[in-house]
Amino acid sequence: MRAVVREGDLEPDETDRLADEAATLFRAQRDLREFEPLYRRYYLPVFEYCYRRLGDREWAADASSQVFAKALAGVHGFRSGSVAGWLFTIARNTVIDAVRTHRSHQAIDRWFGLSDPGPAPEDQAIANDQRRVLFRAMAILTPEQRGIVELRWAGLTGPEIAQALGLSLSAVKSGQYRAYARLRSLLADEQIFGDAP
Amino acid sequence: MTTPDPDRLAEARAAEQLSAHLDRHGDAHSPRSDAPPLAATVRLTERFARSPVTDADIRADEDRIWEDLMLRYAMTSSFPSTTQVPTALDAADGWSHSVERSTTARSSRPGRRLGQRAMGLVATLTLVALVGLSGVAVYLNAPRDNPSPTSLAGVTYGTPDTSTPVASEQVTEVGTPTLAEGIATLDESAYEDVPPPMAYGEDWHIVSAPYLYTLPYTDVQSRVYYYADNDGSRLLLLVVDYGDSTDTASQAFDHFTAQITALQGTLDRAGLDSTLDEIQAEPLAGCSQTFRGDGQERITNYGVGMSLCLDETNRQVIFATVNGYLWDSPGPGQFYPASDSVVTEVLAFGGLAATPVAAR
């Protein structure tokens, strides 16, 4: 059963944001141009989410385009809940579709810029190393934990993550805690991150 | 009454505290003195998880995509349901389906979403049935006193009679021009790390190389394997579907029904109805259920197992499908292949528990 965002799970500001976004979406059901504020708000998080999963700018942009095309096409299907949760449900499935279709085994390399043989500035090289280490740590998490962290990175709240992943809020909280605890443990051993997080 | 585990309670409290903090402070960019310890980890990982794409590039894409979306909107006033742009129904879950929707193919049963996915499976089954039809027919008509799986391989695929299973790494692209859209554009390299879906155990032998198909509605590739058991009494057509992982219990039933219908229709059209009068095509026990994680932490959803049993005297042709990959991947571009145990479980669920598939 898919979880829904309940008001009792939310901070007051969050309730306002959810209501505002839902109102915008309902307006977009009458005129799709009304969707633009939501698009502007969520394009970057959606793109970053897609990029982390796909590892390529163009691919991520294409996937983001698909996400919003699907969102616009399915705008009448939105009834209640969090717009972000709804949108990232689409994003998640779109990315899974994209990866399944393309089967890119080079995605990881692309993510870290490893396929680019050219010299990289030192700070860029360090950042790439840090991303690589982070990726390896992420790969150790369970899929559920990884999904939670990725959506948290995208700026979703716990209830929204629960909605997007079809989990209970308590499962999200528990999975989130264990995920970050595991990441802390894994990254603490990596000198490249300096002080342990 | 049991005493609550103090460690679990402490963890639950910490999880609650972290969640509340993150929800309250969003991305937790600004350190706070009252922040729980793990908030620092959140900040750190978030920082390094950002893409190296510049803001300017992202903005350029953002503007271009919005203009493109609005242009399409302006041209059509609404998104047509028969173009590559997904329909509202499809978009509800974000899965891509690009086949024209048939208004007559909808199931009226509440909760069903037969739609394109099931129709795609019908197409898949039709492909499978056409490819395997001659072999199945010969198999069902073959003398009962010569039931060796090796002869089955020969009659089905015209391969030499041999007791050595064909290497599963060999992939053969098959099809006819009229079904061209359903045939994969073979990208064998994409399957380099895909293991066979089932072990060559003591009970079953693979009798052909796998065939690759692409479901036209999702571009999802499926592999079709043919197995026979040792006494030749059963032929198994196993479709490993590397997609369509949105199955629910009702969809599983839809798929199963569609497969029966399609296979029966194919056999009828091939004029085999008189030969196969004794066919019984009934859902086996449990076929309408969906396999899910069942507490296996790394498995969140691995699709549907279903079998079609065509029982003519004591012979069976079993049609089974299983998702070849799990939903979640360990990282970009990576998947967990379906394990033998998953396939075994699916087959057993489809009524084959009496002769379990041997483990690898």
Please give a handful of descriptors for the protein shown.
heterodimer; A: 197 residues; mainly alpha; globular; disordered N terminus; B: 360 residues; alpha/beta; seven-stranded mixed beta sheet; disordered C terminus; transmembrane (chain B)
Structure explained in plain terms:
The complex is a heterodimer of chains A (197) and B (360). With 197 residues, chain A is mainly alpha-helical. Chain A is built from 9 helices and no strands. Chain A has one domain (7-193). Residues 1-7 and 103-119 of chain A have low confidence and may be disordered. Chain B has a domain at 206-320. In chain B, strands 1, 2, 3, 4, 5, 6 and 7 form a 7-stranded mixed β-sheet that branches. Chain B is globular, with a radius of gyration of 25 Å. At the A-B interface, α2, α3, α4, α5 and α6 of A face α1, α2, α3 and α4 of B.
Draw up the topology in text:
The complex is a heterodimer of chains A (197) and B (360).
Chain A: H1 12-30, H2 36-54, H3 57-73, H4 83-102, H5 107-111, H6 122-140, H7 143-153, H8 158-165, H9 169-188
Helix pairs in contact in A: 2-3, 2-4, 3-4, 4-8, 6-9, 7-8, 7-9, 8-9
Chain B: H1 6-25, H2 38-49, H3 55-76, H4 88-91, H5 115-141, H6 149-157, E1 172-173, E2 204-206, E3 211-215, E4 220-229, E5 234-241, H7 249-269, E6 306-312, E7 315-323, H8 340-352
Parallel strand pairs in B: 1-3, 5-7
Antiparallel strand pairs in B: 2-4, 3-4, 4-5, 6-7
